[in-house]
UniProtKB/TrEMBL annotation:
Location in the cell: Cytoplasm, Cytosol
Catalytic activity, EC: 6.3.5.2
Assembly mode: Homodimer.
Domain of life per record: Eukaryota
Organism from which the protein derives: Echria macrotheca
Alphabetized Gene3D superfamilies for the sequence: 3.30.300.10, 3.40.50.880, HUPs
Reactions catalysed according to its record: XMP + L-glutamine + ATP + H2O = GMP + L-glutamate + AMP + diphosphate + 2 H(+)
Protein known as: GMP synthase [glutamine-hydrolyzing]
GO cellular component terms given for this protein: cytosol
A Pfam short name: NAD_synthase
CDD domains tied to this protein: GATase1_GMP_Synthase, GMP_synthase_C
Enzyme class of the recorded protein, top EC level: ligase
One GO molecular-function entry: GMP synthase activity
Main localisation: cytoplasm
Length: 527
């Protein structure tokens, strides 16, 4: 195991991610962790970057014992400065300018163990820098192993001990050979085994959940039919069986037959203890007259929380009345790493969830109102890893690869007022669109696709009659981070077939358009 001490950099989780890609197991702990509290001995230690300045009075510092363990250490950015500062307080100073972005790094070969970090790598390469402070001189016993035009000490290594520091970030993909450098450190220098796989993660996580929840404790969580909540729910099921209670709130703006499908998948296929709350009428009634996107979101979000909470209280009461059952103490949330804006900082966990997140506001209400504790088994994982985890857990491929679907559902895919008629039209058109995309074998080429409806109508001619019908807006995008996106380049003949089927099969539609706007300036959803 490699120990990663987190000094609060936004990139620290990427170190764990890269090591997982190398099949190396690591544990990330706060930078102030006491070595004497560990029950295991790390093979090597990585000191992450961080926002503080090592010379500040309140700057975080690693336990002295870290340096006495005798295992290899790699300091990244702040970590490098921490190593240098320990040797002599004057070694780190504020730089003249912030260095942020690409830099050309030159590896220097000095002979001996110091060269092992850049072993098998080209002398010249591109790296990613993000720092203000810098080393003013080399600590005693160290050699410079890398420089950039702006950083004289871009990489340093002790001439005898296995102590390394680099100013740049090998964990970000902009550093082209970053993964090789981390492999050199973890595998070659520390001798870490490359035997970690997603199935290890399943075992570790299951035993962690069991320990956390205890022999009798119960957990509730909302499911949506999406990848994240399904994977999180299945993991809970594996860990604690029917002491996990999944709740699906039907908000009336889900996709065609979605509720039944979720029920089939979770209850029948995955054997998860599921309750469905049918709120569709309350949602659709409440949405009457609301045309403003943010108002729609707020209304749906708030009512969702109310209904979920009512159900949670019912489940808690039922548990209380069951002999030998433990209390419902935890609330499951399928948060992924990219949903966590701030990582665990050295001051303690301070996670903020995107307001966009599916059940925005729910954790806070459950935690404050009902005193439930949050349990987030996917918190360190990225989407592709969650998909891999889903496969490990036996979740079918088409669910594992499902596009994301927003919490407010079809409501933000209908421009203007949401009415039952428009929801029905959007559902049917969407179903045809997605089925045809799947049949064409291109579903996995796009990141998200749907059919939406405009409130305005347009004239068309059908048979010999003039009709006045709704305009369907098809949207399909490719993106890696959902912050920017491109319209998917459809085969025109296929697009035309899709349009024909929608107009023919969905009553009340007179036209079909394809939205080719990129994001920005457009967004992925219509509202
Ligand atoms: P936009 O439309 O902002 O969407 O380009 C980016 C991603 O976020 C999803 N999205 C939402 N998800 N609640 C959610 O749970 C929301 O209110 C919401 N709005 C947008 C959208 O589906 C896309 O994946």
């Amino acid at each position: 195991t490699i120990l990663i001490l987190d000094f609060g950099s936004q990139y620290t989780h990427l170190i764990t991610r890269r090591l997982r890609e190398l099949n190396v197991y690591s544990e990330m702990l706060p930078c102030t962790t006491k070595i004497s509290d560990l029950t295991w001995k790390p093979k090597g230690i990585i000191l992450s970057g961080g926002p503080a300045s090592v010379y500040d009075a309140d700057a975080p510092h690693a336990d002295e014992k870290v340096f006495e363990l005798g295992v290899p250490i790699l300091g990244i950015c702040y970590g490098l400065q921490e190593i240098a500062w320990r040797s002599c307080k004057e070694n780190v100073v504020a730089g003249d300018a912030r260095e942020y972005g690409y830099a050309d790094v030159a590896a220097l070969r000095v002979g001996g163990p110091a060269d092992r970090l850049f072993e098998g790598m080209e002398d010249a390469s591109q790296v990613w820098m993000s720092h203000h402070d810098k080393l003013s001189k080399l600590p005693d016993g160290f050699a410079t192993i890398a420089t950039t035009p702006n950083s004289q000490f871009a990489g340093i290594a002790h001439m005898e001990k296995q102590l390394f520091g680099i100013q740049f970030h090998p964990e970000v993909t902009h550093t082209i050979r970053g993964k090789k450098l981390l492999e050199n450190f973890a595998v070659t220098i520390c001798g870490a085994k490359q035997n970690w796989t997603m199935s290890n993660f399943v075992d570790q996580e299951i035993s962690r959940i069991r320990k956390l929840v205890g022999e009798k404790g119960q957990v509730i969580g909302a499911v949506s039919g999406g990848v994240d909540s399904t994977v999180a729910a299945k993991l809970m099921k594996e860990a604690i069986g029917d002491r996990f209670h999944a709740v699906l709130v039907d908000n009336g703006v889900m996709r065609l037959n979605e509720c039944q499908q979720v029920q089939q998948m979770l209850q029948e296929h995955l054997n998860i203890n599921l309750t469905i709350v049918d709120g569709s009428k309350r949602f659709l009634d409440g949405l009457k007259g609301i045309t403003e996107p943010e108002k729609k979101r707020k209304f749906i979000g708030n009512l969702f929380i109310d209904l979920f909470e009512e159900e949670a209280i019912r489940i808690e009461k039922a548990a209380e009345n069951t002999p030998n059952a433990g209390k419902v103490e935890f609330f499951l949330q399928g948060t992924l790493y990219p949903d966590v804006i701030e990582s665990i900082s050295f001051k303690g966990p301070s996670a903020t969830i995107k307001t966009h997140h599916n059940v925005g506001g729910l954790p806070a209400r459950m935690m404050n109102g009902q005193g439930l504790k949050l349990i987030e088994p996917l918190r360190e994982l990225f989407k592709d890893e969650v998909r891999e985890l889903g496969r490990q857990l036996g979740i079918p491929e088409d669910l594992v690869m499902r596009h994301p679907f927003p919490g407010p559902g079809i409501a933000i895919r209908i421009i203007g007022e949401v009415t039952p008629e428009r929801v029905e039209i959007a559902r049917k058109a969407d179903h045809i669109f997605i089925s045809m995309i799947k049949e064409a074998g291109i579903y996995n080429e796009m990141s998200q696709a749907y059919a939406g409806v405009d409130t305005n109508k347009a004239v068309g001619v059908m048979g010999d009659n003039r009709v006045y019908g709704y305009i369907i807006i098809l949207r399909a995008v490719t993106t890696t981070d959902f912050m920017t996106a491109e319209a998917y380049e459809f085969d025109f003949a296929l697009l035309r077939k899709i349009a024909t089927r929608i107009v023919n099969e969905v009553d009340g539609v007179s036209r079909v358009t394809y939205d080719i706007t990129s994001k920005p300036p457009g967004t992925i959803e219509l509202e």
